[in-house]
Amino acid sequence: MSKGQELTDYLNDIIIAITDIEEFTHGMSYELFTGDRDHQCSNQKS
């Protein structure tokens, strides 16, 4: 794999991760986001 393709794949992975974070935190208050990690994970599964 060329260096250019590796960089493209790396940047695409970052974009996917950002999208996942946005979806996970959508509608979440700051208080809930900064609260208990277990609650955050159980919130995602609902």
Strand content: under 5%
Q: How would you spell out the order of helices and strands? A: HHH
Helix count from the secondary structure assignment: 3
Distance between the termini: 39 Å
Provide the number of structural domains: 1
What is the C-alpha radius of gyration, as a whole number of Å?
A: 15 Å
Helicity, as a percent range: over 70%
Q: Could you name the ranges where pLDDT drops below 50 across 5 or more consecutive residues?
A: none
Structure description:
With 46 residues, this protein is an all-alpha fold. The chain has one domain. It has helices at residues 3-25, 30-34, 37-45. It is elongated.
List the helices and strands and how they pair.
Blueprint lengths: L2 H23 L4 H5 L2 H9 L1
